[in-house]
Amino acid sequence: MPYRTDPLEAGRHPFELFTLYLAFLTTFPTVVGVIPVPGTVADVLPDVIQTVWAWTLFLGALIALVGVYWRERASGLIAEQLGLAFAGLASVVYSGCAIWSAGEAALVPAALVGGFGVSCIRRYFDIQQTLDATHEVQKRRERGELV
């Protein structure tokens, strides 16, 4: 039996799901206060913004994952899109903080996390195109242009 990685068949790749789970699981200890924010973020951002950053990444990943498994496709895609926007923004901020704080020594981790952030943002726009196309088809059906 083939492994089904995309329950709603909405163009998701297993890497997207893995990285969202990774973002969720790695920020959970920070948002519950078990471990501090990474040093690169702590070196650059004020305390309040550090907390906002951690919650943004945590909730973004959680909301995106809820959207992935939501049974009603349009609502699930919208939830996923919202979560990806938050996770993408938080990841890009982390990358900038890492470069600012540690310089070229942080280049590889900053590039990996920044790449994840850019991928989240790109997927956000892909989902918007899917939603726009679906809406257009629905309008054409209502006008009787499609059977």
What does this structure look like?
The protein has helices at 14-31, 39-44, 47-69, 73-102, 107-142. 77% of the residues lie in helices and 0% in strands. It starts with 13 loop residues before the first helix and ends in a 5-residue tail after the last helix. The protein is elongated, with a radius of gyration of 18 Å. By secondary structure, the protein is mainly alpha-helical. The protein has one domain (14-142). Helix 1 crosses helix 3, helix 3 (47-69) runs antiparallel to helix 4 and helix 4 packs antiparallel against helix 5 (107-142). The model is unreliable at 1-8 (pLDDT under 50).
Topology:
Elements: H1 14-31, H2 39-44, H3 47-69, H4 73-102, H5 107-142
Tell the overall outline: elongated
* Beginning-to-end CA distance, first to last residue: 35 Å
Q: Give the DSSP E fraction (strand runs of 2 or more residues).
A: under 5%
Number of alpha- plus pi-helical segments = 5
Strands, count: 0
Largest sheet: none
How many distinct domains? 1
Helix and strand element order: HHHHH
Q: Catalogue the unreliable spans.
A: 1-8
Mean pLDDT: 87
Helix content: over 70%
Structural class: mainly alpha
Rg from alpha-carbon coordinates = 18 Å
Question: How would you describe this structure in keywords?
Answer:
147 residues, mainly alpha, 0% strand, elongated, disordered N terminus
